[in-house]
Amino acid sequence: MTHRWTADSIPDLTGKVVVITGGNSGIGFEAARELARKGAKVVLASRNPEKAEKALAEMEAEILAGKLAYIPLDLASLDSIKYFVEHFRARYDRLDVLLNNAGIMMVPEAKTEDGFERQLGTNHLGHFALTGLLIDLLLITTGARIVNISSNAHNAGEMDFSDIFYSKGGYTPMGAYSRSKLANLLFTYELQRRLETHGAETLALAAHPGISATSLAEHFVPESFSWLVRGAMKLVFQSAAMGALPGIRAAVDPNARGGEYYGPDGRGERSGYPVVVSSNPASHSLEDARNLWEISEKLTGVEYLS
């Protein structure tokens, strides 16, 4: 029987410091719980204090206190990102894993606090800025990794650098979401290339959860029916715990390599155990990756690994 990589495969993480964006729910919550169980100090970075505190209480009820912490972070706000980084630096002098997990999916057209289209602004630009503002800590931490969570939706993504925010029209929730998930992969591969060019040991990897039962799709129905959506998803889709495994494996598997992309091993990569998978040709475009990096630096004002 082929070896299946599970939560039991996670190595001892005592002394490691991990940041997980969106760690208060879904696959982020499951990743935080499993990494803390293995000894890591896990910092939840999320925008909702009430949900974060509830998640902390739930996890600390089964894990030794002191393994988890919370620092507010809204990826749709560059000021909030800077706030998070300032407070993280005041507490920690190392960063072993930055798990860029948080995201929004197929939401109505809107802008972030800084005027970015909301899905690209949150899912990519927020994480691009956060990574850049923490890169020095990652570079000085032996064996550090950056993991970006993408999606099978990247296959439908198209980059249009002449109208990255749909200012000329044509916005669709799915189109914008797919673009943001393609951007996650372009960013990952370009980040790995730049790390290698600079002779850094830090690795950049990506992962996707397949189709998992999380709260991402609840906005499609009125709040009073969200319980019904959650129940139906649990019957049809794999659990959030299983969906978290590709990102966890990318973050901690000693055999993982920079630039690898992890996803479920089942049919269509919709469910299953984490393995190295392939992303589409568009995600490997050197020209698009460089263009995205340049425009990301310009929009966020965060420049690094030039």
In short:
With 306 residues, the chain is α/β, with parallel strands linked by helices. It has one domain: Rossmann fold, CATH 3.40.50. It is 41% helix and 12% strand.
Describe this structure as you would to a colleague.
Helix 5 links the parallel strand 5 and strand 6. The chain has eight helices and eight strands. Strands 3-2-1-4-5-6-7-8 form an eight-stranded mixed β-sheet, with helices on both faces. The protein has 306 residues and is an alpha/beta fold. It is globular and about 50 Å long. The protein has a single domain, classed as NAD(P)-binding Rossmann-like Domain (Rossmann fold), CATH 3.40.50.
Attribute tags:
306 residues, 8-stranded mixed β-sheet, 12% strand
Chart the SSEs and their pairings.
Layout: E1 17-21, H1 26-37, E2 41-46, H2 49-60, E3 68-72, H3 78-91, E4 97-100, H4 118-140, E5 145-149, H5 173-197, E6 203-207, H6 226-236, H7 240-252, E7 261-264, E8 274-276, H8 286-300
